[in-house]
Amino acid sequence: MLTKKIGLLPGDGIGPEVTAEAVKVLNAVSKVTGVNFKFSEATIGADAIRKHNNPLPDSTLQMCAASDAVLFGAIGSPEFDNNPDAKIRPEQGLLKLRKELELFANIRPVKAYNSLAHLSPLKSEKIKNVNFIVVRELTGGIYFGDKNLSLDGQTATDTCTYSVNEIERIAHVAFAIAKSRKRKLTLVDKANVLETSRLWRKTIADISKSYPDILVETMYVDNAAMKIIQEPAAFDVVLTENMFGDILTDEASVISGSIGLMPSASIGKKIALYEPIHGAYPQAAGKQIANPVGAILSAAMMLETSFGMMVEAAIIEKAVSQSLNFGVCTPDINPDKNYSTSAVGNAIASLVNEEVIQTV
Ligand code: IPM
Ligand code: MN
Fold this sequence. Notes:
single chain; two-stranded antiparallel ribbon; about 40% helix; binds 3-isopropylmalic acid; binds manganese (II) ion
């Protein structure tokens, strides 16, 4: 029997709860497809700081390196957020993991569900046909440049650096995605101000010559922030650097009506990592109110991207849409008649089970 090794990093806050539901759905797929998923679990983030005084212990990194793909929950905790003097932070674990596994491309699909149009802060006619993908560079830029606080504590510096090589490798990922979609790529930058952005523009212009069938447009990030609200359906593939991508994907995530619905994939040289884009949501931890759909759809992205299991991934996506249509949702979606995190996971897992039996 084919076995795939999946590393689990449930992390902090609601991470463990939502990850458990994704595992449930993967087990439902496994039961009927004959693909065996072997799960290993390790600690990261605030949980790892508490246990090992290290947000990314070596043993966690080794577990990830020995896996075929990694499923990540969430990271972060108020005890560190509210302490500007904290030397060790949970987020450092995730950033180091991205760097160590060379997860340079973060793929964040943005999609609106018709059945949830009433939840969107945008008018329903605006969100019709919204379906785009943000390709965010993930291991460079201001996140990873030199940082400094002067000795007198009066001046701080964060450096933003990009090399042609870093831009090229993510550009190829974005062009390949654009090729499989509507063949339109929007490069988002701040080339009127930043030298790094001008290098991005030049590099993308050079690369675009080898993708003549893809329409490339450029847009300043401030304008893109507006356009995501005014005309989100106009985007297909958005390519951008690390920090702009971080901000724009949070903005875009509210279009669907709940950030709890959004999955992501971080791909690199070998192993890829899949994670819902929401954070640790500590106020909800342990209450079984967190939406597991982002984690479940991240598992679907894993099947598709890392394991080539397209049919099964599509079945999970369909089961998610069905459960939303049936109103089987956590309180972020339906505050009146809501289901627990695990009830939503159970419903999606059983829909997957029924469907897989019919299809595979
Ligand atoms: C994200 C998060 C991370 C980031 C944090 C937790 C470091 O916001 O994945 O978008 O800024 O990249
Ligand atoms: Mn973010």
